[in-house]
Amino acid sequence: MEWSQTCMPFLIFLFLVLVNEVRSRGNTVFEIRQFGATGDGQSDSSKALEDAFSNACNVVGGRNQILVPEGTFMVTSAVFDGPCKGLIEFRVDGVIKASAGIVDDDKWVAFRYIDGLVITGEGTFDGFGESAWNLNDCKMNSQCTHLPTDF
User: Fold this and answer.
1) Which residues form the signal peptide (predicted)?
2) In the CATH scheme, what is the code of domain 25-133?
3) Given CA atoms 44, 88, 94, 131 in this order, what sign does their dihedral have?
């Protein structure tokens, strides 16, 4: 029997095992209620979001998902810093809502230094849009307070 006939099935098997091992790493869902978030629209879920992100960001390999389920999650300010050890999917199926006092901060939700970030889902980011626009007088006032950016 020739070497290629003997070793080829073993090499194919080994390759498939390695591919499966790489694909099975990561791919963990970090649902923000497991970190203390409540979807009542009133309680601050900022820390829960940041904690879920931190855990997902530190998993080596795969695509790790931060899940914002149905519900309204109030966020005063959240910063998500990379780099991460795997790919990150930020899935929003509920509403991430800004707090009424958001004008006091220069950011609301910030994603920084994250390679391969994917934002998915059927939910929304509600930064109060139009109701905050009248607070922006920067065209007329050089000393204005800049409103926070969404992303």
Assistant:
1) 1-24
2) 2.160.20.10
3) positive
Could you tell me the two tokens for 89?
């999917």
**Pairwise CA distance, residues 101 & 145, whole Å:** 13
pLDDT at 42 over 90: yes
- Answer yes or no: are the C-beta atoms of 60 and 88 closer than 8 Å: no
d(CA 98, CA 44): 10
Residue 149: the pLDDT is: 61
Identity at 48, one-letter amino acid code? A
What's the mean pLDDT in 10-38? 71
Q: Which residues contact 72 (CB under 8 A, 6 or more apart)?
A: 39, 40, 41, 94, 95, 97
Q: Is the dihedral of CA 84, 89, 91, 96 positive or negative?
A: positive
Q: Are 61 and 25 in contact (CB under 8 A)?
A: yes
